[in-house]
Amino acid sequence: MALEALTGCDPDRRDLAAEVLGDFLRCAVLDTATACLVVGRLASLAVTESVVKVRESALNAVCEAFDHYSLPLGLVEPLASVVRTLEPELLEYALYIFGATQDPRARSLIEPFLHHPDPNVREEARLAGAEIAMSMTFGHGSPGPASQ
Predict the structure, then answer these.
(1) Count of domains in the chain?
(2) Do both 92 and 57 map to the same domain?
(3) CA–CA dist 61, 4 (Å, integer)
(4) Any idea what DSSP says for residue 119?
(5) One domain for residues 64 and 97
(6) Structure pTM?
(7) Buried b (16+ CB within 10 A) or exposed e, 79-94
(8) Is the dihedral of CA 130, 103, 105, 112 positive or negative?
(9) What are the tens digits of pLDDT across the range 92-141?
């Protein structure tokens, strides 16, 4: 039901649906395949959505997923097509998401924002890069499907 509401005409319903899906992800009640499906849909919504509050709810829900699921960069990589147009607050979510994949290939998506005019964006870019570096140090990150 909530997945279907992501594509509805009413932005308030899309926003609520993203929040509900975020709750499911935060509580880790979904199996990995379903979580991947949900995150993929939420990432797509964040790319196509024109209403800022809906976009923020979608990005926040994706962030919630990384607390309980190991998700591949390819699932959220569509966000790269809009990062340069995001408001700084939303850009912080996207940078967190890229870092949370722990995929070294995400560095190229993060590094341009290390010199962003907004100090919060710069800090989130630094933290995202550090997340990837730490995962590589401890052997968790890898550039292929094995990191799933």
Answers:
(1) 2
(2) no
(3) 16
(4) H
(5) no
(6) 0.90
(7) beebbeebeeebbbbb
(8) negative
(9) 999 999 999 999 999 999 999 999 999 999 999 999 999 999 988 876 55
